[in-house]
Amino acid sequence: MTVLPLFYSFGMSVITSHALAGSSVLVTSSSVIEEAFWSSLHRHGVTFLPGVPTTYTMLKRLGFESRELPKLRALIQAGGRLAPTLIGFFHDVMARRGGQFIVMYGQTEASPRMSCMPSTNLPTKLGSVGLAMRGSEFVVCSPGGEELATGQVGEVVYCGPNVMMGYAEGRDDLTLGATHGRVLVTGDLGYLDDEGFLYLTGRSKRICKLAGSRVSLDEIEQIAGGLSVVPREIIAVSCDDEKVVLFATGIDPAEASDLRKGLAAQLRVPPMLIEVRTIAAIPLLPSGKPDYTGLARSAGARADRI
User: Fold this and answer.
1) 189 and 238: one domain?
2) Please, which residues bridge with residue 284 across strands?
3) In the structure, what pLDDT confidence band is assigned to residue 241 with cuts at 50, 70 and 90?
4) Structural domain includes residue 24
5) Predicted TM-score (pTM) of this structure
6) What CATH number does the domain containing 134 carry?
7) Is residue 305 part of a domain?
8) pLDDT per residue over 122-151, tens digit each?
């Protein structure tokens, strides 16, 4: 079912993979928050539903586990990191129904899938994005380009036949042929375990410096989520490498103060380097991913602190 926009590489890959398999695709203009979406899904016996992290956050709030969907056999997730608690939740729901919850990892430059987590491995490999697609491999490298040992965090490099030919900034670039070969430097940080399962820890560009130490903004979001009294969406952005600003949905002043202090203690930095702001909803790009750029711009502007 067309949950994702077709101009988004993940959404397009769902269409092309179904076409290749000879499967049907149900086209709808409804979103998952509309009852018409679920009525259509049930009426047509949809078996396969894709989504990004925002999709599954909404499905959890909408009480997905209580819906009667006897034909639905598989949920797949890509497009960003989904909290392990939500992965475990949807895995359990689908397993009870005899179905699967499948986590994937990819980038547009790799057409766009790079790894897949078999649902049977989720209980023991929770937090991993799975194994490289057949005929491909992951390598984790140091800043100098040396391959790192199992368990060491570095930049994830993907090697496979689905890597793009290259970037074209003008008409003449289209005549260059393949400039990337089979290698894609992903810009993601992570590590491999001894069975080849990949774990992502953040983005190389989503790094800030607090009190002289390099800190991953993705890691800060994970820590903040664990400290939060109730589940809520939290996005961390850097404000000129001088402080971190957290945007948290529906947080009140007292909890914001506690979150700020608790996070500062875990990161071992002065609380003055952390700011927590309440926000009604996290702004999203058309792809469904958080608008980090817009939030960072907002963080640099004058705003009342909580």
Assistant:
1) no
2) 290
3) low
4) yes
5) 0.74
6) 3.40.50.12780
7) no
8) 989 999 999 999 999 999 999 888 999 999
**Over the stretch 168-227, which tens digit does the pLDDT of each residue have?**
889 999 999 888 789 999 988 899 999 999 999 877 778 776 766 677 888 889 899 889
Contact 198, 233 (CB under 8 A): no
Give residue for tokens 């992502």: 200
* 194 and 67 share one domain: yes
Distances (CA, A) of 7 to 4, 11, 77, 174, 254: 9, 7, 17, 21, 42
